[in-house]
Structure formats: structure tokens, C-alpha cells
From TrEMBL:
Protein location: Cell projection, Dendrite; Cell projection, Growth cone; Cell projection, Lamellipodium; Nucleus speckle
Name of the featured protein: Protein Abitram
One biological process term in Gene Ontology: regulation of actin filament polymerization
Similarity-based family: Belongs to the ABITRAM family.
Cellular component per GO, a single term: nuclear speck
A molecular function GO annotation: actin monomer binding
A family per Pfam: GCV_H
InterPro entries linked: Abitram, GCV_H/Fam206, Single_hybrid_motif
Alphabetic keyword roster: Cell projection, Nucleus
């Protein structure tokens, strides 16, 4: 039920020749994703119930971080789902190459917990790996 936010394999930062210079979780003067401090516990009933305090609430369009590359480009990475920010990956701050070398494992950006009642509709709207590859093929062929 948790969502791990990573860079898509087609993201420009994962294309050859790009070097990540900086990752910034400071979204605005008053909002830093690094200040997200989650505390709470889970209880076991017929379902897992999480009682969290301090977790920042995100909408689909909420920025998670900004990533600068050595060629001067800056990319804003958005949550893409509604839910509570459980954690950000502080390891990529000291080792930004993880985003490129291990984007779907150690190079993740954040972990988001959607509302329980919304989690089913979120997963139903996801693409399979094959569907994603077909979208990329269509995108590349239309760009040619």
C-alpha cells in the first residue's frame, strides 16, 4: 500500500551524458521535505491502521524535490499521488549518483502512503511495465 517515488527510466536525468549536481528538498521558504518527521504506531486489527503525526500531506502536484544537473537544467519532481509523506531519501543528498545508478532501489526519492480508501483506485490507474514501454515507444516514434 505504500508508494515509492523514483525517477522513471525515461526521465532526462537518466539519459546518458547527464550528471546530477544538486538535490534540494527545500520546496519554498516555509516548506522543506527534510522537516517531515513522522511519529506514530500501527495497530493490528483486521487491517493495518497507521496512526501518524507530523507527516506532510501531499497532493498529486506537490513538489517533492528539485534536481539540478551539470548542464544547468533543473527538474522538479512531483509526488504524483495524494497521501502522507513517510520519508525522503536523505542518502541521495550526499550521493546523488544513486538516482542514476540505482533509481528503483537505493536511489528512490521518497515514500508516500496514500489514504487507504484511495489506494485501490491509485493502483488500478497504474501502467504495467509492458504498457509503460509501449507508451515510451509511441512517444519516441512521434518525436522522430
Amino acid at each position: 500500500r505504500i508508494c515509492v517515488i523514483t525517477l522513471a527510466e525515461a526521465h532526462p536525468l537518466l539519459q546518458t551524458g547527464k550528471t546530477i549536481k544538486n538535490i534540494n528538498y527545500q520546496i519554498s521558504a516555509n516548506c522543506s521535505r527534510l522537516q517531515n518527521k513522522v511519529s506514530g504506531k500501527s495497530k493490528r486489527t483486521c487491517l493495518f491502521v497507521f496512526q501518524m503525526q507530523g507527516a506532510q500531506f501531499l497532493t498529486e502536484l506537490a513538489p517533492l524535490c528539485r534536481i539540478s544537473s551539470s548542464d544547468g537544467e533543473e527538474y522538479t519532481i512531483y509526488s504524483c499521488i495524494r497521501g502522507r509523506l513517510i520519508e525522503v531519501n536523505e542518502n541521495i543528498l550526499s550521493n546523488p549518483a544513486l538516482l542514476q545508478e540505482k533509481p528503483s532501489t537505493e536511489g528512490y526519492i521518497a515514500v508516500v502512503l496514500p489514504k487507504f480508501e484511495e489506494s485501490k483506485s491509485i493502483t488500478q490507474g497504474l501502467l504495467t511495465q509492458k504498457e509503460y514501454e509501449e507508451v515510451l515507444l509511441k512517444r519516441r516514434s512521434s518525436a522522430s
